[in-house]
Amino acid sequence: MRPRDCVEPIIGHLKSDDKMKRYFLTEVLGDALNVLLSASGQNLRKSLRWLYFCAGKVPPVVAVYAHSLAESIKK
Fold first, then answer.
1. Domain range spanning residue 31?
2. Residue-wise over 45-74: b if at least 16 C-beta within 10 A, else e?
3. Distance CA 44, CA 69 (A)
4. pLDDT digits over 24-63, tens only?
């Protein structure tokens, strides 16, 4: 399996979930910031998912978002 085959689905999810189809920031700096912030959001979702499913000890502040994330995954 080529590395590109593993990356393409992730890019597709970033485009659809993080609304990357339309850029609100302009020029090269805006493109870079949009990708960076979307990737940061993806990493945050992965971390929250791990906390919710694996660690079992979620701080109360994060528990609400992690629970709603888990519910959206189950659908």
1. 3-74
2. beebeebbeeeeebeeeeeeebeebeeeee
3. 11
4. 667 888 778 877 887 888 888 888 777 777 766 666 666 6
Q: Are 31 and 48 in contact (CB under 8 A)?
A: no
Secondary structure element (H or E) that encloses residue 40, with its range: helix 27-50
Residue with tokens 């999810």: 13
State how many domains the chain has. Answer: 1
Whether residue 5 is predicted with pLDDT greater than 80 in this model: the reply is no
Does the predicted TM-score (pTM) go above 0.90?
no
pLDDT at position 74 is: 58
Spatial distance between the Cα atoms of 62 and 47, rounded to a whole number of angstroms: 11
The C-alpha atoms of residue 48 and residue 29 are separated, in whole angstroms, by 28
Amino acid symbol at 26? T
